[in-house]
Amino acid sequence: MTDEQRGAGLVNPREAERQRIAELNRNYQTRFGLPFIIAVKNHDKAGILAEFERRSGNGPETELATCLEQVHHIARFRLDVLLG
């Protein structure tokens, strides 16, 4: 997982970035009752932050479906690595 986060530029963020991510995640969890899930592969930090903002406007049912879709992407990426 750290390699995935490193590739997206999420390891060792600057303090302001860390605080912004924490704030977005708190707001997201309060709104939807689940953690923000995104397949970070093929995203950079700016893209992930933009997705946080965009998806925060979703309704609960849409966001749950989006999270499940992201879980499928993550599983596929990891299976691809394992299966070569």
Descriptive account of the structure:
It is built from 4 helices and no strands. It has helices at 2-7, 15-32, 45-55, 60-83. The chain is flat, with a radius of gyration of 13 Å. It starts with a helix and ends with a helix.
| Tally of DSSP helical segments | 4
Tell me the β content: under 5%
Q: Helix/strand-derived class? A: mainly alpha
| SSE arrangement, N to C | HHHH
Average pLDDT = 87
Low-pLDDT runs? none
Q: Percent of residues in helical segments?
A: over 70%
Q: Cα distance, first to last residue?
A: 17 Å
How many β-strand runs? 0
Instruction: Specify the biggest β-sheet.
Output: none
List descriptors:
4 helices; 84 residues; mainly alpha
In a nutshell, what does this entry contain?
The chain has 84 residues and is mainly α. It is built from four helices and no strands.
